[in-house]
Specification:
about 350 residues; six-stranded antiparallel beta sheet; globular; 2 domains; alpha+beta; Cathepsin D, subunit A, domain 1; seven-stranded mixed beta sheet
């Protein structure tokens, strides 16, 4: 997700598995020519990602489930470290709110030549899904039919993708356990949700047509300041903090970290109601956007907080990301809000459960 990207957010690299209902890219008013140029480049990246996915099911051997992936939690973001059957180790970023692509480090590890793209954002090559060994295996996307693009991230964008991004299409149609306190990512049999009180079950929203998901971006409802808000469930949301912001937050964490996002108009409403809520002006590197600390977030039947949100222009979510969702959203809920929970997400039943493991 976004770290040093000026103005843009996670939707810039969203790569849905199917064409959404809204096919025309919405206009974004009031942005500079440079930002619009970046948006155009990243829109081409979206198209490059989408063409490799279809309704065909990819057949691949897999271990018995549940299966704990070779994953690490770094600053509240999950990375996987699979190893191919020929011993090549990869390092891939996972992101429920992102796209599906490889970057040049994976091509280099696999001995695949990349070319300079004709236009920024165009593919620099293609890679077939690797065959992974039993000891460090990860699944292929459930609906992969073809090769994945190799994309070169835009310059000065600070995308911490490692060797690629395993985004929404990779998580689609499966059941996952994100255990933040334990730092583990586990693939479960479909429908294998833990037994929790009904208050800790959350119904998710997905854009769908004729009963089938047309995109795979989960919408989740949270409550902040007594107000229900619709957000993207976004395990890859990322912010890079300025030294001044790090000194103010003073939690000993890394500058680049799991984050959450909120629209400008919502943040303004918070500030008007709660002048005591801490705000760090221009606290995010690159974007120079503000950070606002919500005192409490209610999610999955629990209260958690305080949670820092990086502010984003309204159009980033209202006009851009919302076109991939079943309802308009006003932000994203990421790892800094989820860090105290074990969250299990079953995509097919559109349900998430929240547990708070004992410390």
């Amino acid at each position: 997700m976004s770290s040093n990207r000026p103005i843009s957010t996670m939707q810039d690299h969203a790569c849905p598995g199917h064409t959404p209902r809204v096919r025309r890219r919405p206009a974004v008013m009031g942005e500079s020519g440079a930002v619009l140029q970046r948006r155009s480049m990243l829109a081409r990246m979206i198209s490059a990602c989408a063409v490799v996915l279809s309704s065909a099911t990819h057949a691949a051997d897999k271990p018995a489930l549940p299966y704990r992936l070779p994953a690490t939690l770094v600053a509240n973001r999950f990375f996987v470290q699979p190893v191919t059957d020929t011993g090549k180790a990869l390092h891939l970023f996972t992101d429920t709110g992102g796209g599906l692509l490889f970057t040049p480090p994976t091509a280099e590890a696999l001995g695949i030549e990349v070319k300079k793209p004709e236009k920024p954002g165009d593919p620099a090559g293609e890679i077939a899904w690797p065959t992974f060994g039993d000891q460090a295996w990860i699944p292929a996307p459930a609906q992969l039919d073809g090769k994945l693009p190799v994309l070169i991230p835009p310059p000065n964008q600070g995308l911490d993708l490692g060797g690629g991004m395993l985004g929404a299409p990779w998580f689609a149609d499966r059941c996952w356990e994100f255990d933040y306190p334990a730092g583990t990512l586990t693939l479960l049999p479909n429908g294998k949700l833990p037994k929790v009180a009904i208050g800790h079950q959350v119904k998710l929203g997905f854009q769908a047509e004729d009963g089938k998901h047309t995109t795979h971006f989960p919408r989740i409802t949270v409550r902040i300041d007594g107000e229900p808000l619709e957000l993207l469930f976004d395990t890859g949301a990322t912010s890079a903090l300025t030294p001044e912001a790090l000194a103010t937050i003073a939690d000993g964490g890394a500058a680049t970290r799991g984050s959450s996002f909120i629209t400008t108009s919502t943040a303004k409403r918070w500030r008007e109601r709660h002048p005591d809520w801490l705000v760090i002006e221009k606290g995010e590197q690159g974007t120079k956007m503000d950070l606002v600390r919500a005192a409490d977030v209610e999610v999955g039947g629990y209260s958690t907080g305080p949670v820092w949100f990086a502010v984003r222009p309204d159009d980033n979510f209202g006009k851009w990301m919302s076109q991939w969702m079943d309802q308009p959203i006003v932000g994203a809920l990421g790892g800094n809000a989820l860090r105290g929970f074990r969250v299990t997400v079953d995509y097919l039943s559109e349900t998430a459960t929240f547990e708070k493991p004992a410390k």
